[in-house]
Fold this sequence. Notes:
Rossmann fold
Amino acid sequence: MSKKFTITFGRECGAGATNIAEILSKDLDIPYYNKDIFRMVSDKSGVLEEFFHVNNERPGNNLLYKLIKDLVPKNQKPSLGKDIVSPDNLFRFQSELIQELAENETCMIIGRCADYVLKDHEDVIRIFVCGDMESRIHRMMRVFSLERDAAIERIKETDKQREKYHSYYTGQDWNNASNYDLCLNTGTMTIEDAAEHIKLYLKQKGYIE
């Protein structure tokens, strides 16, 4: 490894971002974090892990955050008061941990608005993984043993939640290509090819040899 970096993954449901991270983790010997962040932040904050799972990728309900784009929970410290388990405060806890991970190690972070949380870091590669609906349906059916209609429903609902979550906490469009360094379409390439594209980008930028 030439120098420290963090990869963040925004992703459409069923596009295979976690599978890409698994390959990169093995090939580059670096960790990736997804829902295990809930356990880590629970240990750090003392807040039950269950609260983080219940609010996973669900926006809060503070109208100010919707009206004032620059006023987002990420920019505030976590509260230990009566709002400790509010969605906005849980997001702050996650954001604080993501910042610490990025500052202390080379790693990958899936979702959690990490691309925005780390917007002031220079050593971050922001990636968005997408795919055509048919390829995502087939992947969801295969990976989760779902019927076609169930796979379609899960994809649509998950994408809708992720879009709302990202917009609420960042004020940005979740699937706007200009917010990312790389956008990879796993409907037109294999998961393995997508991982190779990322490694090539890392080499070009001097992060790996």
